[in-house]
Amino acid sequence: MTSSDSKETAVDRLLARISSTLRQRLIQPTDIAALAVFRMLFGALMCGGTLRFMSNGWVESLYIQPDFHFKYWGFAWVQVPGATGLYLLYGGIALSAALVAIGAFYRFAIVAFFCLFSYAELMDVTYYLNHYYFVSLLALILCFLSPHRAWSVDVWRKPALKSRQLPAWQLWWLRFQVALLYFYAGLAKFEADWLLHAQPLNIWLPPLGGMPVLGPLLELPWVHYIFSWFAFAFDTTIVAFLLMRKTRILAFLVVLVFHLFTHLFFNIGLFPLIMVLAAALFLDPDWPRHRLRDLQRMCRNLFCMVGRRSMQIPGRDCLADATQPGAGISPYRLKALPTLAITAFCLFQFLMPLRHWLYPGTVLWNEQGMRFSWKVMLREKSGALQYRVITHDGKTRIITPGEYLTEQQFREMAGQPDLILQLAHHIRDDFNARGQGPVSVFADSMVSLNGRATMNLIDPSANLAEIDDGMGIAHWITAPPKNTPRLQQTLKLVTRE
Amino acid sequence: MPTYSHSHSSVLAPLVLSSILLTACSDSDNGPAPDPVGDDVRRIVLSDIGNNIIMPALRDFSLKADALNQAVSEHAQWPDDTALRSDARAAWRDAMLSWQYLEPLQVGPAGASTGLDGTRGGADLRADIYAYPLLSTCTIEELARNDLVVNNGSSVNTTGLGALEFLLYNEEADPCALGTPPTASQRASYAVSAAERIREVADDLQQRWEPEGGDFLGQWNTAGDGSEFYILPQNALNALSVALFYVDKQTKDLKIASPTGIGASGLEDCETISCPERLESRLFGLSGANIRANVQVFLDSFQGVDGGYGLNDLLRGIGREDLATEMTDELLAVIDHIDTMNTGFDEAVEAIPSAEACINGTANPNAESPAACALHGYLKIAMDTFRGSIVAVLSLATPASTAGDND
């Protein structure tokens, strides 16, 4: 036996041991309680969020009013239905979410929720939100998990379904997705504007100066720096602290406070609630039973106080511990194909946010690789845009986006090059349809990034009518601004001469 | 994503406590008042805009609407009296110019009460005064012919200053080819009801703002300090910002781009090089003066009047003197261009020599460009600065920004 053979054997042995340990960890029986509670709260949150969306009139303003909708690359086939179809779609989302919450017809409900919700999000890229994408991913993962095997209508209907445990991989798959979000949200903040110039918090926070107690602090630039650095540190490390048993509870409290403030500071809808719910996945899997037991104890004490000692608190059985680590051989097995598929999914999710490194310049400017990458609340971009259309007879027309878009669509698209290109194509097609083609379409797009002076985002000499959308490097997007953003001072009254 | 963390509370708690104590001390101190910072500055700016711009403009329009009502009523008694008709037209002109100054200030009761463009305290009063671009002259003709009049429930496209312009300036006997058009007397009677309605709404609007009335001015001036409509001063500034976008969307795109033939892909092509029929005040030829009033109130709100503060002081206060100067210069260039045009805007639109010259004129506005097109160019420069830089730097709201969430 040569030394290289023995080395290979040692490496093989080490890999085999790691693989075996990992496998054992993943199939280890784990209390179902945390996943069951997650299912209930996730469903309830999505149901409530959808009803909120409808009651705010956003179905009307975001989907019915606009004549034109921006499509995701590769998803142009997703069409916006008429008003009735839209309300049926959103009604279906709310209903399926409610069914997920109560665990009724779970498998059907979660698949329906995933399909309907994702369809709704794919209807118009203008309204892309990281937390909507996150919800879609969680729903997709939940399609393959079994959190309905406890505390659900399905168990009540079919008692044979009842289980007190699930294999650990079900919990860890969700945890992995949550961890990725936090990690990449933190990594995205590792850039000069955020850390060295406190942008865009330096722009966003001062207008909140009237908030009680903290308000005056929000006017101070050094506070913007502290917030920027803290947010960076929080995002990049919170998962590690949540994973460590010693720091878990404290970390979860920090998560609560952090997201409370994001809720107070920014108009980010359900995002804080979703993230708090997601962070709860890192608590011990049996935490709901402990909390229920505490509740039971409290009730019992209360009953004792009012002299009703004999009263029985129901549900004792469900409070017993379900997890007995290391006790016997796991009844679960990992099958090759599903394991491979999940591994591929996780690898894809890991690599996807890194794709912006393939493009020159900063993603904050060119936006190539911005979506699906957990770049959350990272930049302040505003701009003015108009198109120059040169018709076949050489006449120039000026088109403002407002002729095709609602103000909200305009505001969102003005800083996103691929959407500027998409509208250029729509304008080209519109002119062609009116018999004025072929046309050339140029964009005059002046954009400000994080408070810098405005500059052209799109090469004004690029004929967008001839440029195809795609994943390649977009040479028609200008180089990012070289100057640094200016730090805005605390607002004071400058006495006039 | 910012926050205060549990781990930082030990650092921040003393800071918060200190600032509270400092505030408490300074309240009992008899020394000079500290320089205003933050929200105090925002409130000062809001108060100056409310006291020096909005309130005087409302009072002025209320007086003009009253005068208009009187003049139109007198004209109705002798519809064929040209002198009285001339007086009514003059009164309309004064009222219209006064209102055009207020048009971009649709905050509070003048603004919409619901919808994406809804504003806090909105009572939908604007459309009863002036519903541009909504106007149905032929419906007015039919209503007048049937001796019907304007009332509280009248459709906004049959009343207001737009309806009065048509009734006072139309010279055609039967512009809608009704066969039996309304008589001069019937038109005059309809005009009386329209003028009376304008007067009522103008008075209502003013009273809602007056400190002795609904005191919306008080709500405005105390934003973030007791105002029930504006919890933060920034909320009131956002309302003002959204309102001022009128100059971008209505003044620039609708009142200038559309008749000059720049853009307007959604409209049918004009038969001529430009589209004078799309001018705002085509009958009277007042379109340029309307535009000037719209831009003037933007400028006044930006730089303040009568020594008061304006939005540019918010820029100066955070060290962005550069943007304050840039925006002021650009708005002054628009005003200067209007004032130095050889003809009125209406005539300038008709004088556009070619579409190409117009496009070049708006892209590079100068003294040689077709004047109407250059006006679009000058205003676009100013509005791009507002939309692209100032809104971002001051974190101001844009129209329809309440729809949807962010992240």
Quaternary status: heterodimer
**Total number of helices of chain A:** 18
CATH class of the largest domain in chain B: Mainly Alpha
Structural class of chain B: mainly alpha
SSE series of chain B: HHHHHHHHHHHHHHHH
CATH level-3 fold name of the largest domain in chain B: A middle domain of Talin 1
| Major beta sheet summary of chain A | 4 strands, antiparallel
Tally of structural domains of chain B = 2
Describe it.
With 497 residues, chain A is an alpha+beta fold. Chain A is 51% helix and 6% strand. Chain A has 3 domains: 24-285, no CATH class; 292-317, no CATH class; 380-466. Chain A contains 18 helices and 6 strands. In chain A, strands 4-3-5-6 form a 4-stranded antiparallel β-sheet. In chain A, helix 2 (33-55) runs antiparallel to helix 4, helix 11 (221-243) packs antiparallel against helix 12 (248-265) and helix 12 (248-265) packs antiparallel against helix 13. Chain B folds into 2 domains: 37-230, M75 peptidase, HXXE motif (A middle domain of Talin 1, Up-down Bundle), CATH 1.20.1420.20; 245-399, no CATH class. Chain B contains 16 helices and no strands. Residues 1-28 of chain B have low confidence and may be disordered. Chains A and B meet through helix 3, helix 10, helix 11, helix 12 and strand 3 of A and helix 1, helix 2, helix 9, helix 10 and helix 12 of B.
Which helices and strands occur, and which strands form pairs?
The complex is a heterodimer of chains A (about 500) and B (about 400).
Chain A (H helix, E strand, L loop, with lengths): L2 H25 L1 E3 L1 H23 L2 H7 L18 H20 L3 H17 L7 H13 L10 H5 L7 E3 H21 L3 H4 L5 H4 L16 H23 L4 H18 L5 H9 L7 H19 L30 H16 L11 H4 L14 E10 L5 E4 L7 H7 L3 H17 L6 E10 L5 E2 L41
Antiparallel strand pairs in A: 1-2, 3-4, 3-5, 5-6
Helix pairs in contact in A: 2-4, 2-13, 3-4, 4-5, 5-6, 6-8, 8-11, 8-15, 11-12, 12-13
Chain B lengths: L8 H20 L10 H39 L4 H21 L23 H4 L7 H9 L14 H10 L14 H26 L6 H6 L11 H12 L1 H15 L26 H17 L7 H7 L3 H20 L4 H6 L4 H9 L7 H23 L14
Helix pairs in contact in B: 2-3, 2-7, 2-9, 3-6, 3-11, 5-7, 6-7, 10-11, 10-16, 11-13, 12-13, 13-16, 15-16
